[in-house]
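#struct-pred

JT: dropping the chains for the assembly here, can someone run the whole complex?
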Amino acid sequence: MADLTTEFLGIKSPNPFWLASAPPTDKEYNVRRAFEAGWGGVVWKTLGSEGPPVVNVNGPRYGAIWGADRRLLGLNNIELITDRPLQTNLEEITRVKKDYPDRAVIVSIMVPCEEQAWKDILPQVEATGADGIELNFGCPHGMAERGMGSAVGQVPEYIQMVTEWCKKYYSKPVIVKLTPNITDIRNPARAANAGNADAVSLINTINSITSVDLDSMAPEPTIGGKGTHGGYCGPAVKPIALNMVAEIARDPQTRGLPISAIGGVTTWRDAAEFMALGAGNVQVCTAAMTYGFNVVKEMISGLSNWMDEKGYTSTQDFIGMAVPNVTDWQYLDLNYVTKAKISQDDCIKCGRCFAACEDTSHQAIAMSEDRVFTVKDDECVACNLCVNVCPVENCITMVEVPAGQIDERTGEVVSGDYANWTTHPNNPSATAAE
Amino acid sequence: MATSHQASGIQAARLDAAGIAENFSDLHPAYDAHEAAVAADRCYFCYDAPCMTACPTSIDIPQFIREIQAGHAESAAKTILEQNILGGMCARVCPTETLCEEACVRETAEGKPVEIGRLQRYATDTLMEKGEHPFKRAASTGKKVAVVGAGPAGLAAAHRLAMLGHDVVVYDAKSKAGGLNEFGIAAYKSTNDFAAREVDWLLQIGGITMDYGKKLGGELSLDGLTSAYDAVFLSIGLAGVNALRAPGEDKDGVRDAVEFIAELRQAEDLTALPVGRNVVVIGGGMTAVDAAVQSKLLGAENVTIAYRRSREDMGASRFEQDLAASKGVKLMFNVMPKAVFGNGAAAEIELEYTQVADGKVAGTGETERLAADQVFKAIGQTLEGQPGALELEGRKIKVSDTGRTSMAGVWAGGDCASGGEDLTVTAVAEGRDAAMDIHSSLMG
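RK: done, full complex below.
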C-alpha cells in the first residue's frame, strides 16, 4: 500500500485529505471524531475577533440541488464563522493539537481589515501550537457585508496587505483562501504571492441561490419568508475549482506557489485530479457533511490503490503532472481527428445519443428500424456529446483517425503534423509558418 | 376454527379470516411517494422508447415517468389515460414482464427494468384518489352508438365516443360492468373493489347510459341495434368455454375455471367460498394460473397445473409461472387429462404424458393418477354463437385494424374480435381505435 504521507508547507500529515474550514471542524468533539476516522488534517472553522461572537440565523442554513436518486450534487449555506467564544476555540485547538501531534491543525481566521485586529489575534493562535493559519478571504455572505471575507478577497491590494501583516505577526505558514467570486482568479493569487503567502487554498464557496419556493415565492433556504444568496459547494462546483487551481498552477507569476485545493472532492479520484493539476493536498467539506467522516476511508484506499497501480510511492510523484498539458485553446492541435464509435455489445439501445446528436448536434448518428445506432463518420465532428449522454460508461468512445487516413467528413487526409489556430489560414492574424 | 388443509372434498373455511386477508392482499402494493421517486429516477427517457412501442396502447411512458420525476403525478396520469382510459387497471394486471418492462433498456442493461407498471399505478391512483376526471365531453354530435359488452374494450370505446360528443348506451348481460376486470383476473391484482371504482370514475365523463341484463342473441339483436343506433360496437368477449372431452367431465367437482374465478371475485366473504383439498387445473394460460393460485390461497392442500405442452409454450408468462410456484402450486408440463374418476364426485384424475410431433400433441401412453376432488378447466374460451351474419376469422369475429366487421355500421373489439392478444390492455386499444374510426365514419 502506497505511503500517503504528505508534507505541505513543511506540515506533515498521514494523508493529503484535510477537512476544510466549515461546520465539521467547528469544535473539539467533531475534530476528534474526524481524526479517529482517519482525516489527515483539519482547518478549524474560522475564528473571529475577541468579543461577543457572531450570531447565526435560527431558520434553515442550507439549500441543495440533487441528481437522480436524490444524490446531493450541490449544497449552499448561509452559516457564518464560528459563533462560539474565541477563548473556547483556542483552548480546544490547543488540546486537540497536543493529542494529535501527527495531524495537521490549521486555524482559519477572519478579523476586520485593520492591522491591530490581526496583531491581537495572531499571538493567541500561535500559542495554541497549531501548524499554520488560513486567511478566510472567501466567505461570500454575512461577513462580506461587514468588510470581511470575500469583500477582502475581491480586492487584491487588501489581500496583499493583510497577508503581509500575518507574515509579520505570525511565524508559521500562512495560507490565503481565495474566493471564486471574481473574474480572474490569477489576480488575487498573485496578490497573495506578493504578500509572501506560503500557499493559497481555493475555492471558497460560490454566490448562489439553490432554488425558489414557489408557494412562498422566496429563495431557499427561506427564513421567515425571505432568503439570501449563500455559498455554493459540493460536486457541482468541482469543474470550476479545477480550472481555477490549474490557472494558478500554470500562471508564470504564481507557478510553484503551493496550493491546497478545495471544491467538491468526494472520492479519491477527485483528489488525485486536483493534485495532478498542482495541488499539494485537498480539503473536503460537502462529502463529509453528506456522508459523515468515514468517507475518508475510501479516499485513502482509492488513492493508495491507484498509486500502487501507477507505481507512485509518494504523493509528490504525481503532483502537478497534468499542469503542462493545460494550455490555451489556440494551441490545441487542429490536426487531431477523432470519431465517435458505439460498441454494439455494450449498447442498451436507449437512443439518447441519437436524440442528442439529431436534435442538438450534427445529425451524425443513424438509427435503424431495429434500434441499432451507428456513427456516420462523414458527419461526425467528434463533439463528444453522445459519449456524455450515454448511460453506459465506455459504450461510446472517441477513436483517433490516424495520420494518413481520410477524414470522411472533410474528405481530406489526416495530417500527422501539429497545427493550431495561430497558423490556420482562416485566422486573420495568423503568422505564416516559415 | 378453520377447516384444515387436509379435510377431504370441497370445503369452505380452510383458512380463517386473517389468513384469507393476508393471502389476498395486494400482489404489488402501491408505491408511496418516496418509492415512486426512486423508481422514476431510473428511467433514461429513451428516444422512441422501446417500452412505448411494446405497449399495446402506446402510452408515452418516458413522458409520464418524467412527469412523476418532476413532481406532478396528475399530469403523468393524464398522459397515461389519454392513451388508455383503463390505465389504472392495466397498471395492476398487465403482464408488464412481457410488454413494456421486457423492452425496458434497463432490463437489457441490468436485468432489472424500470417498474413501469407500479409507476403507472402510482400516477393513476394519485389522480383517482382526488376523484378528478381529467377529460371533458365535446359538444353533443346528436349521434347514438350502442356498445354491447361492458368489459375493457366496451368501456374504452364508450368513453372515447362519449368524450367526442356521441351519446352512448352500453349493454351488458350481467348486472354489473367491468367484464373480466370485474369477473375475471385474480383478486390479489384488483383489491378494494378497484374494477368497480374505476368504472364509476370512467363514467364521470357523462353521456354514457348503462343498461344491464341485456344479451346479444337474447334481449338484443344485431338488426335491432343497427336500426336503432348510428353505429354498433361489439365487445361481447368469449362467453363459451371449451370442453375437456375426457370421460368423467360431468362429475361433481369438475367445473370451468372462469366460473370459479368470477364467483371468487364476487364473494363477500372468501372464508365461505369452498375449495377442494386436491385441486387440479387443466390449462396453461393466465386463467389457469389465477385459478390455481387462488385455490392455494383459499387453503387447498395440493394444487397442480397440468398443461399439455412445454413450459415455453405456456400462455402464462414466466413471472406468472414463478408466482404460482412460489405459492406452492405444482406445475406439470406435457400432460393431458385422460379421465376423471370418482363415485359421483371427482376423486382422481388420470393424466397422460404427451409429446409434440409435427406441431400436434399426442399421448405417449404413460399415465399418472393424481388425487383430485376439484378439477378446473382452463383450456380456453370461445365466442358464443355467431352474431348476425358477421364473418369470422378462426373462431372470432373478423375485424380490420380499426375494428370494422364485415357488416357496415358494426365494429368489434376485445377478446371476441380477431387479432391481438387477449389482454385487458389490447382490448382497451381495440376499443379506443374502433371508437376513433366510428367517430370519423359518423362525422365524415
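JT: nice. The interface with chain B takes residues 68-70, 348-352, 354-355, 367, 371, 391-392 of chain A (CB under 8 Å). The longest strand of chain A covers residues 41-47.
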